[in-house]
Structures are given as C-alpha cells and as structure tokens.
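Give me structure tokens for this 419-residue protein.
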Amino acid sequence: MPLARSLPKASFAKTLGPALPILIGTSLMLTLSMGLRQSLGIFMQPLTHDVGISISEFTLAIAVQNLAWGFLQPLAGALTVRYGFRAIMVGGAVLYIAGLVLLASAHGLISVLIGAGVLIGTSLACTAAAIAMSVAARAVPETVRSTVLGIVSAAGSLGALLSAPIGQVLSEDFGWRFGLASFVVLALVMLPAAWLAGRVDRIELPKPSSDQIGNISAGAAVGMAFSNASFVVMTLAYFVCGMQLVFITTHLPSYLLICGMDPMLSAQTLGVIGGFNVLGSLFFGWAGGRWNKLALLGGIYVCRSLVLAWYFMLPPTPATTLVFGALMGFLWLGVGPLVAGAVAEMFGLQWQAMIQGLAFMSHQIGSFVGAYGGGLIYDALGSYGLAWRIGVAVGLAAGLIQVAFALIRPTAPPMLRTA
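Here you go.
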C-alpha cells in the first residue's frame, strides 16, 4: 500500500524531508530543460525567414535534437552508474547553454543543426525526464515513489509557463535573437540545480538479492529488458508519445500563424499546456500507485489522439486552441511517472536510467517523425491535414494495443522486481 494513502500528510512530508534538496534541484533542472526545449517552436517563423532556411530545415534540426537525445539517453544512463549523476547532469547543463548560444547567433543551417540539434539534444539526454525520474526514484522510499515521480514531473512542466511567454514577448519587441538570449539566461540556472540534484550520488542503493538486475552487467541488463514482453510493448507504444508531442510543440505556432491567429496565442497555449501538465502529472503519479501503469499509458495515448482529432477537424479559434492546450496539457507528461515507475518495478534502480533510456529511444524516433515528417508534409502539401490524421490513427492503434496487452499481462516476472 503506498505510504501516501496510509499515512497523514505530515508523515508523508516527513518521509520526504531528507530528499527535499535533491527533489528541488531535480525539479528545477527538469522544468528548465523541458520548458526551454518545448518553446523553441515560437522562434521558427522569424528565425527561418531571417536566416534563410526552410521550415523543413528548421524541423530537421529539431528532429536531429530528438534523435541525439533518444540514442544518447541509454549511454547517459549507463554513465551515471560509473561516474555518478552529478557529473552527467552538470555536463548536460553546460551543453544546453552552449547550444542556445550557438542557436541565438546562427546565420545558416549548420549553426541551427549543431545548436538546436546536436548540442541541445545531447544535453537533454543528461538533464531531462529519464535522468530526473531516476534521481527522484532513488531519493525516496518505494512506498511513496509513484506519487513523488508525479510531483517531480509536475514541477518539471512549469518551465513552459515561464519560457514561452517570455520568449514570445521579447522576440516580438526586440527580435528572435534577443528572445533566445533570454533562454540562455534561464538555462544558466540549470547549473546550480544540477549540482544540487547530484546529492543523490551519496545515497546508497539497497543491496540487491542474487536474482535482481542490479547484480548483472549493462549488457545483460539490456538483454533482460528486451526479453520482457511488457517492456517491449511499452517501448513500441512510446513511439506515439514522442510523435504527437513534438509535432504539437514544433508545428502548432506555425499552424496558428498560417490560420491568421495572434502570434501570442501560440505562447499562451504552450503555457496552458505547461499549467495543466502539472495537474496531469500529479494525477497520473497518484494513479500509478493504485492502478496498472501500462494500462494508464495506453489510455493517455487514446485520449490524446481523440483530442487531436477534435481540434484539427475544426477551424481554430482562441477559445478552442486554449481548450486544446488544457486537455493536451493534462495528458502531456503524465507518461513520465508511469514509465519510470514501471521500469523501476520491472528492473530495479541500478540500471533504471539506462533501461528507461532504451524505451526512450523509441519515443525519440517518434519525435523525429513528428518534427521532420510534419515539416516535409507541410512543405509538400502546404497544410498539416495529412500530418495530424496520421498522428491520430497511429495514436489510437498504439494506445488500444497497449491497454489490451497490459490487461492480458498485468505484472512483470517476479524475478525482475525490486525487494
């Protein structure tokens, strides 16, 4: 029984007391890492016009970012076992700042690809959800883990509330380069946040028994993960998550501008997504401690697809766009605590960051398709109609398969669970 259900609030808070500095640093690092990245789409139209590149070339940079993030995530997770979380997270924060500086000073496609693509993508592998969730999971007892993962995920969603409106206002008043310069200033805060979160390295892992995954090598852990059917299905369905979310963050500002909406509406919508994401993350963190995490994941994918279909079937208005942002925000990062909690339950804590990174590779391949594929479809057809239809169809299929499989195989093999 989760501690959050069995103890009063004061006891729950007392349980978290020693971990609070770690959780605060982790949440701050995550909120800036994700918030700044999710807000880059507001610069797409002015940047491409000024630098002289196409929409699809800008989205190629975002696609490269997502591939770098995804394929380097397992490596970053494995390196935390050898070098500790602090070194990886602080190094990632430095790369994030460097990437934003290069993007803000870009004068051609190469600078955009390296800055927004390679550097920020590499940084996200070291500072975003997989690492942050692993830090939070290690910092607290198992009895409160799912709830705490939801809290950290919720806090990590607040960055878009701050960064998107700031970037939009400064970009309109002083130009997109000045707007990106403000992102550099915000990214500097990631350095002390990552250092504080790195205190988790002082916490020793529970000694694993002889049949748990902590006693085997990284290669054996990878093999065990991909021999687990529940993990494989979760990983394949995770593709849809990345495809839908990155399509929205990358292309929604452009779509609204094409439709004649106020440019500030896109920043407001991204902010609404961030705000309602707080509620969604808290809810799904709480729900994951009570119900089947994998079935909840499938339900999120189905609901997102229905919301996408509803919004893009109608002509956009400020009201429907903000409602879309609220609904989608509630379903946004709720996957974070569910995936992290499921991986910890199935495989334990020592290799959690690496195994979660393996699943995340699928997510980021989906992100590549959502960003670059959406740009290619727009350049070819002059509209996003086909892109959102594909997103809805694939999302519904993956969500229903995930729910069905979770109900058929509701638990992991006992030998893979932590004590």
